[in-house]
Specification:
Helix content of chain A: over 70%
Number of helices of chain A: 10
Distance between the termini of chain B: 24 Å
Number of domains of chain A: 1
CATH superfamily of the largest domain in chain B: Oxidoreductase, molybdopterin-binding domain
Distance between the termini of chain A: 31 Å
Oligomer: heterodimer
Number of strands of chain A: 0
Helix content of chain B: 10-25%
Structural class of chain B: alpha+beta
Order of helices and strands of chain A: HHHHHHHHHH
Shape of chain B: globular
CATH topology of the largest domain in chain B: Sulfite Oxidase, Chain A, domain 2
Strand content of chain B: 15-25%
CATH class of the largest domain in chain B: Alpha Beta
Shape of chain A: globular
CATH architecture of the largest domain in chain B: Alpha-Beta Complex
Largest sheet of chain A: none
Radius of gyration of chain B: 20 Å
Order of helices and strands of chain B: HHHEHHEEHEEHEEHEEEEHEEH
Chain lengths: ~230, ~325
């Protein structure tokens, strides 16, 4: 059945989905590069690049945070195997975004950058969000999960909630007047974080029950949440 | 009043418009293609290949067609013009902050066609000898039209060089005959959500209101603009007439003006009302007074890769600094 295949794709299909997702995540980069090359980004292309990479960081962070609840509600466990790639792409766009600020906005004037970070709250939270993303990207591979141990890895990676809040705040604080877009991102994030509250309580109850020996934990092998 | 001329070269030495616009577009293409390898980090094209591509995609007819026929006829060249290279008409008319047509900078060019600019009248009201109105046709007869090439600095940190067509705002104010107790003048923009769909959203309080102290408005650099590049103003640039105050941030220059209101007290402008801590009444371009959320020390000239230092009063300090003698411009920002 088709439905069965979607719920549990074969290894070959899983590989195809991964490649497709990889290309899809790369598409914004390709479109931006093509836009610059063809002079299609309007009179201020640098602004479009800076803003575009920032927006894709935010979108990919939110998409990454959608994986766990989506997996739980649909029962498609293979979705979990896409989560790392999505998270790493969020980091990749954050890197491009920070790079465009350091280079195209400040031209590596470290004094001015330092003052900016200290003086401008929206830059402060943006840089903080990036700094917090670095250890997550660095510990994203399987070897690091094993080295840290599931529980410690999980605790570390829960900082993605804070990162997403900082990222939305960064956007909110920089817009001049019309806050429609930041409000949309903030609302989506609020829903995604809200969905985790009952899940978390449910998880705790199970853990406590398991500790008392009245139930067995039969959760998935990969670290749950984020 | 002592009127000093800017230390620029005379307008007669300026390269003809069609030549520099074409040259600039070509150079712009080269620059954007040359920069792509760095920006995207994934262009495999060699420098020579990029140059060849730019040369192939450049069409000599581009610039001539977009500059237009110059329907406003013969213009007086102004000694107040800068000798800097103006931005292209395309850049000037496709990168606009005109919230009446949407907050996106591309929105005004796409939306402003709904604006009806004829018939158009301007009311003069408040502290004037006699409140009355004047049609755009009669405004155009108040003074000979000049070409004034001015720098424009946006509060957001970008700038352009724009060849306006107009005449000193002072001429319309003299026609209005303000009373002696009029100390400020408010510029009221059109309020009609049918013509200006952006006004359906309360981003700012409509109508858009700006204002100047009367001596600022009477300064010879303050311009009443009706055209751009020798042609009538594109709708997205504030047709049929707008204010241009080149030493202040762009938002001080109200667009699509329907009324001049003379008052005794300092008016509250739309941006002051929206965010009083961020936008002051004076809003003179000042690299030493940051916007609370970003620096004003530098600016990106549209079309340039790097950033340049922002000049006090946008480089018009020699002419206008005297207006603010004895004022603390950090407090009265």
């Amino acid at each position: 059945m088709w439905a069965g295949r979607v719920a549990k794709p074969s290894a070959a299909w899983l590989a195809r989905i991964k490649v497709a997702l990889f290309l899809a995540c790369l598409l914004p980069t390709v479109l931006l590069a093509l836009g610059v090359y063809q002079d299609r980004l309007g009179p201020n292309p640098i602004e479009v690049v800076t803003r575009g990479t920032g927006e894709w960081t935010l979108r990919l962070l939110l998409i990454t945070l959608t994986v766990t609840p989506l997996c739980r509600s649909s029962g498609w466990k293979w979705l979990m195997r896409m989560r790392r790639m999505l998270g790493l792409f969020a980091f990749y766009y954050a890197l491009l975004h920070l790079g465009s600020y350091l280079w195209l906005d400040q031209f590596f004037d470290w004094g001015a950058i330092g003052r900016d970070i200290l003086k401008r709250p929206f830059i402060t939270v943006g840089v903080a969000a990036f700094m917090l993303l670095v250890p997550l990207a660095a510990t994203s591979n399987q070897a690091m999960v094993r080295r840290l141990g599931g529980r410690r890895w999980l605790r570390l990676h829960r900082s993605v909630y804070l990162i997403a809040i900082l990222a939305v705040t960064h956007f909110w604080w920089l817009v001049k007047r019309d806050i429609t877009e930041p409000v949309v991102y903030a609302s989506i994030l609020a829903v995604l974080l809200g969905m985790r509250l009952p899940l978390h309580r449910w998880g705790q109850a199970r853990t406590q029950a398991a500790a008392k020996g009245r139930a067995r934990v039969t959760g998935p092998a990969w670290p749950r949440n984020p | 009043m002592l009127i000093r001329k800017p230390a620029d070269i005379p307008p007669s030495e300026i390269t003809p418009r069609s030549t520099y616009v074409e040259r600039r577009r070509f150079l712009g293409k080269l620059a954007s293609v040359g920069g792509v390898g760095g920006v995207s980090g994934m262009s495999g094209m060699s420098g020579v290949g990029a140059l060849a591509m730019a040369a192939m995609s450049w069409r000599p007819g581009d610039a001539v067609a977009e500059v237009g026929a110059g329907s406003l006829g013969a213009l007086v060249k102004s000694a107040h013009s800068t000798n800097e290279t103006p931005n292209s008409l395309h850049d000037i008319s496709h990168y606009n902050n005109f919230y009446e047509f949407g907050v996106d900078k591309a929105a005004p060019a796409a939306q402003a066609h709904t604006l009806v600019t004829r018939p158009w009248t301007v009311r003069v009201e408040g502290l004037v000898k006699k409140p009355r109105q004047i049609a755009i046709e009669d405004i155009l007869k108040l003074a000979p039209l000049e070409e004034r090439i001015y720098r424009l600095r946006c509060v957001e940190g970008w700038s352009m060089v724009i060849p306006w067509v107009g005449f000193p705002l002072e001429r319309l104010i003299r026609w209005a005959e303000p009373l002696s107790d009029a100390k400020f003048v408010e510029f009221v923009s059109l309020h009609d959500p049918k013509q200006m769909p952006g006004q359906l959203f309360p981003v700012l309080r409509w109508p858009y209101v700006e204002g100047l102290r009367l001596d600022e408005a009477m300064h010879p650099l303050a311009l009443l603009a009706v055209g751009l590049y020798g042609d009538i103003l594109p709708k997205q640039n504030g047709a049929p007439l707008r204010i241009v105050v080149p030493w202040k941030y762009g938002f001080k220059s109200g667009k699509s003006i329907v009324a001049l209101r003379f008052v005794a007290q300092q008016p509250v402008t739309s941006w002051m009302r929206a965010a009083p801590s961020e936008y002051g009444f004076y809003s003179n371009v000042n690299p030493d007074v940051d916007h609370p959320r970003w620096s004003q020390a530098r600016e990106r000239r549209i079309g340039e890769f790097g950033k340049r230092k922002t000049l006090p009063f946008n480089g018009y300090g020699e002419q206008v600094a005297g207006l603010y003698a004895g004022m603390d411009l950090r407090k009265q920002f």
